[in-house]
Amino acid sequence: MSGCSVRQFKGVPVGTTAGKEPLISKGQFYQALTDSITHYTRLLPESEKTLSKAIEVLDVAAVASDVPREFGEAELKLLCTTFGLGFSDAKNA
User: Fold this and answer.
1) How many CA atoms does the CB half-sphere of 48 hold within 13 Å?
2) Most buried of 15, 46, 56, 74, CB within 10 angstroms?
3) pTM for the predicted model, two decimal places
4) How confident is the chain (93 residues) per 10-residue block, as mean pLDDT?
């Protein structure tokens, strides 16, 4: 393995504390993902910005509580088509 030695990878120590890593909550993970996507949106080419905007409808915290039932359907369809997911399953989830 190139650059790999015992407990090191390319000079960086690799820990072996299996099972002792702290768990990250789902909410924290998705918030970090949202923040990352939002931050890098300005670096995306124009052709990718539509997809990035579509992802915003999945951010529950940013969506008003009194939106129409069909809110975000077009964006969700775009995401499902892009990532090969079933629209009905995603909508119900």
Assistant:
1) 8
2) 56
3) 0.49
4) 63 72 80 76 74 80 76 89 88 80
